Amino acid sequence: MDRIFIEGLDVDTVIGVYDWERGIRQCLRLDLTFAWDIRAAAASDDLSHALDYAAVSERIQDFASQAQFQLVETFAERLAAVLMEEFQIPGLRLKVTKPGAVPAAAGVGVEIVRGCL
Ligand SMILES: Nc1nc2c(c(=O)[nH]1)N=C([C@H](O)[C@@H](O)CO)CN2
After folding, report:
1. Number of domains in the chain
2. Which pLDDT score, from 0 to 100, does residue 57 have?
3. Which end of the chain has fewer CB atoms surrounding its CB within 10 Å, N or C?
4. What does pTM read for this prediction?
5. CA–centroid distance, residue 66 to ligand 1 (Å)
6. pLDDT < 50 positions in the chain
């Protein structure tokens, strides 16, 4: 299966376990890889046959702007389900990084694979 990717997508959301995190917005950095057969899009040169990474990015930004989860695990799981359902994506890899959560680390977070990648 071919793959489409979105790297280093910064989103703004309410995320965190602690009281001080519930009243602020923080950045999450997302890296996504989608399973997608690109042959129909390539043969037709028609965006309607492609997985439109701009439309997917917009949906992710909208999801994050509404979300208020405590755990990055929940953010990742719910976002993966929304994208797979709404864009008929057969499989994806999603890495969610929370920069600055552990000051000594460049980043911490989760990476999940769902469906067939
Ligand atoms: N596995 C996780 N561990 C932690 C999370 C999380 O979402 N998943 N979150 C926190 C706090 O919100 C932290 O990021 C605040 O700096 C701690 N551990």
Report:
1. 1
2. 99
3. N
4. 0.98
5. 19
6. none
What per-residue confidence (pLDDT) applies to 26?
98
Distance CA 82, CA 80 (A): 6
Q: In this prediction, does ipTM exceed 0.90?
A: yes
Q: Are 17 and 71 in contact (CB under 8 A)?
A: yes
Residue 95 falls in the annotated catalytic set: no
Report the CATH number at residue 42: 3.30.1130.10
pLDDT of residue 112: 98
- The CB of 105 under 6 Å from ligand 1? The reply is no
Is 101 a pocket residue for ligand 1 (Cβ < 6 Å)? yes
Q: Name the burial class of residue 106, with classes exposed (0-12), middle (13-18) and buried (19+) by CB atoms within 10 angstroms of its CB.
A: exposed
The Å distance, Cα 72 to ligand 1 centre, comes to: 7
